[in-house]
Design a protein that fits this description.
Radius of gyration: 25 Å
Helix content: 25-40%
Strand content: 15-25%
Shape: globular
Strand order of the largest sheet: 13-12-14-15-22-21-20-17-18
Largest sheet: 9 strands, mixed
Distance between the termini: 63 Å
Number of strands: 22
Number of helices: 19
Bound molecules: glutamine
Structural class: alpha/beta
Length: 541
């Protein structure tokens, strides 16, 4: 077997939202199941340096990696499918590429040459692609090119793919994802958009090796042959990608279509040593499709119009549901719609309540009313990041009697049970900056619910926030029954709070949802769903 890293490029045509991320992750999963090491990279053609500054309504959730990179939500899919952490190197934007090139230009690295899209921008793109291969950790680097072929923004990326394909020869391959629409009036599947999209790629000098065709109906042998003939690919390399009921079904559908074998064959690799990855995957899928019960959990947040804003949370509920052999039905509730008067009505029938992360003032009071309702009515509660901060404010107001308690993030007057990182621990956390980003260690208190859930005393979780629990109030909180059961060992920052006299009430400063995968469902979500099932049953009696 050749030891060179193989590069697979995934482009998209006809329309956006065809699911390049899921197809890339599915192929990666199948290669992993054959014993190969794989990583997936996303190239995003927008000019933001990273999605950290983007409003969730723009591109959905901002996914955070262990090394503190703020990235595209597709990286979440890569981790959930492969169970291997990604890093900053797995997500590159046009903004980041240009920033590097402009910095080099300012340093004089280009020795007086005119700096141009070709070759300087394309060289930088190629470097970023090859960087992952050069780590020596992966036999495959799958690079997903964001956007649709033909977009002005995507041009330098497609040109980089053309050059790399030419340079790498047998070590590179292009998969093009297209749409085969169904015209109900004539009852026909249409191949013309695929033909046009491939023609466009050819104009840029790129011949795709494999076509993955999204379709609502099966592609006949005849139709596959037609696509193959018009697009210069082998009939076996025309892969049908039927709409699936769950993204977790896609690897299995791709396995049936032999996408992995076609790839290995084209790259002249053996079919590998089949391991248990897909067996475990199929067991998960079976449980997902055959839940033994259902539980309704409310997700209270302010970006619920776009469900992708809470992608990792929704997926964590799927994983945790399967672990409990239970279907979690999420009820999406807008935090701005909740008032102290209507809260009981809005949250009626829910067996658990999650208060979501977020930034800024909007919807805060609705979150606080929600938490009060969950606390006073013994409804299992999980607060994530801002959700925990709101739990702290609610407790300060309604239990400690600090009527104007607030976070300094909200420009409120004193007292402040939630304060900025700098105020909280003036440089006790050595990593610097005003935002805690990425993985931090957390110690769990003995005989706490957190300890019971995680079954260990030290954990690592990912953070993305500027505000912290104000330790000046800690003694008062603990005396009244809200305990700090997770602490950052470096700076004694409070990472977890929980209530002593409540069946299941946990607030976490970090984001557990980023670390839940199919193979490793997150213990906090598994525990939360279990509590919702059990407490729900008791309440129902
Ligand atoms: N806005 C809050 C902070 O910066 C919470 C952030 C979040 O929920 N991710 O601390």
């Amino acid at each position: 077997m050749s030891s060179n890293t193989k590069y697979i490029f995934v482009t998209g045509g006809v329309t956006s939202s065809l699911g390049k991320g899921i197809i890339s992750a599915s192929l990666a999963k199948l290669l992993q199941a054959r014993g190969y090491t794989v990583t997936i990279q996303k190239l995003d053609p927008y000019i933001n340096v990273d999605p950290g500054t983007l409003n969730p309504y723009e591109h959905g959730e901002c996914y955070v990696t262990d090394d503190g990179a703020e990235t595209d939500l597709d990286l979440g899919h890569y981790e959930r499918f492969l169970n291997v952490p990604t890093t900053q190197g797995n997500n590159v934007t046009t903004g980041r590429i240009y920033k590097t090139v402009i910095e080099k230009e300012r340093r004089g690295d280009y020795l007086g040459k005119t700096v141009q899209v070709i070759p300087h921008i394309t060289d930088e793109i190629k470097n970023r692609i090859k960087l992952l291969g050069k780590t020596g950790n992966y036999q495959f680097v799958i690079t997903e090119i964001g956007g649709t072929v033909g977009d002005i923004e995507s041009l330098p990326y497609i040109e980089s793919v053309r050059q790399l394909k030419w340079e790498l020869g047998k070590d590179a391959l292009v998969i093009h994802l297209t749409l085969v629409p169904y015209l109900s009036a004539s009852g026909e599947l249409k191949t013309k958009p695929t033909q046009h999209s491939v023609k466009l790629l050819l104009e840029y000098g790129v011949q795709p090796d494999i076509l993955v065709c999204r379709t609502e109906h099966p592609l006949s042998r005849e139709l596959k042959n037609k696509v193959a003939l018009f697009c210069n690919v082998e009939p076996s390399a025309v892969i049908e990608a039927r709409d699936a009921s769950s993204i977790y079904e896609v690897p299995v559908l791709m396995e049936l279509e032999k996408l992995d074998l076609v790839v290995l064959n084209k790259l002249q690799l053996t079919s590998g040593n089949y391991n248990s990855e897909m067996t475990e995957w199929k067991e998960f899928l079976h449980k997902l499709k055959h839940p033994k019960q259902e539980v309704k959990i409310g997700l209270v947040g302010k970006y619920i119009e776009l469900k992708d804003s809470y992608k990792s949370i929704a997926e964590s509920f799927i994983h945790a549901g399967v672990a409990n052999e239970c279907k979690v039905q999420i009820e999406w509730i807008h935090s701005e719609s909740i008032t102290p008067e209507n809260v009981a009505d809005k949250l009626k029938g829910l067996k658990g309540i999650l208060v979501a992360p977020g930034f800024g003032n909007r919807g805060i009071e609705g979150k606080i009313s929600t938490i009060r309702h969950a606390r006073e009515n013994n409804i299992p509660f999980l607060g994530i990041c801002l959700g925990m901060q709101c739990a702290v404010i609610e407790f300060a107001r309604n239990v400690l009697g600090l009527a104007d308690a607030h976070s300094t993030e909200m420009d409120a007057d004193t007292p402040y049970p939630v304060i900025s990182l700098q105020e909280a621990q003036k440089s006790v956390i050595n990593k610097g900056g005003t935002m805690r980003l990425g993985a931090y260690t957390c110690r769990l208190a003995d005989s706490s619910k957190a300890r019971e859930v995680y079954k260990k005393d030290t954990i690592t979780e990912r953070h993305r926030h500027r505000y912290e629990f104000n330790n000046e109030y800690l003694a008062d909180f603990e005396q009244a029954g809200m305990m700090a059961t997770g602490l950052n060992p470096e700076g004694a920052l409070v990472e977890i709070v929980e209530l002593t006299n409540h069946p299941w009430f946990i607030g976490v400063q970090f984001h557990p949802e980023y670390k839940s995968t199919v193979i490793n469902p997150h213990p906090l979500f598994v525990g939360f769903v279990k509590a919702a099932i059990e407490v729900g049953v008791v309440v129902a009696k």
